[in-house]
Amino acid sequence: MRLPQLRMISMNFAKLSPLSLPPGAEIRTYAHGDEALWVKLLDENGELGRWNIERAERAFTGPQRVLRESLHFLWYDGAPVATACVQRHDKWPDLPELGWVAVLPSHRGRGFGRIISLAVMHFMRRHGYERCFLRTSDRRLPAIRLYRKLGFTPDLESHPTFPRRWNAVFQKLNERSSDTTLA
Q1: Which of 73, 84, 151, 164 would suit a FRET pair with 29, their CA atoms being 20 to 30 Å apart?
Q2: Where residue 67 sits, what CATH number does that domain have?
Q3: How many CB atoms sit inside 10 A of residue 20's CB?
Q4: Per-residue pLDDT tens for 19-28?
Q5: Residue (of 145, 127, 147, 120) closest to 38 by Cα position
Q6: What angle in degrees, to the nearest 10, is found between the helix axes of 141-149 and 112-126?
Q7: pTM, 2 dp
Q8: d(CA 99, CA 7)
């Protein structure tokens, strides 16, 4: 049986940090034809499965879909290095997902994941949302650390395996789970 990805929830966009870009960095949103750029960043990230245009087109449709206009790209020294977006779910119309956060391996450790995530969260706030959720893998410890710093907290209720799995993640991170009610 395949386990679902872990979930985290951000409960208050009113307290978002301001977006600050280092020299040489810029953020831009989707422009017509950026699907190939998005696919390239997701595929080269190496942690989000294999991507091609057909998979991207499927991601833009259905009950769980990426909003093209929400695609954000972080460019550094004239090259795209990171992306993230909003994913809408028909099941939860008032709770968007911070989705497909990807930073090229050669640019990790520079804070680009934080920047691109914050840019999309600010986008959500401007569009009337007060909170969001995200999904991540148990093994993506640097990403989980980042999401915790951005104010996301573990979702312990959406699946019976979540409390046990979150305990294991916190042990690997050498963190105490005092701000959660882990069983």
Answers
A1: 151
A2: 3.40.630.30
A3: 10
A4: 999 999 999 9
A5: 120
A6: 50
A7: 0.91
A8: 11
Distance CA 172, CA 76 (A): 32
Three-class SS state of 77: coil
Q: What is the count of structural domains for the chain?
A: 1
What is the four-CA torsion angle of 56, 59, 61, 64, rounded to 10 degrees? Answer: -170
To which residue do tokens 């951005």 refer? 150
Residue 152 maps to a domain: no
Which residue positions in the chain have pLDDT lower than 70? 176-183
Task: Give the Cα-Cα-Cα angle 84, 72, 122 (nearest 5 degrees).
Answer: 85
Task: Count CB atoms within 10 A of the CB of residue 164.
Answer: 12
The tokens for 149 are 């710093």
pLDDT tens by residue, 127-145: 999 999 999 999 999 999 9
* Structural tokens at position 110: 């520079």
Q: Domain range spanning residue 103? A: 6-135
- Looking at residue 150, what DSSP letter applies? T
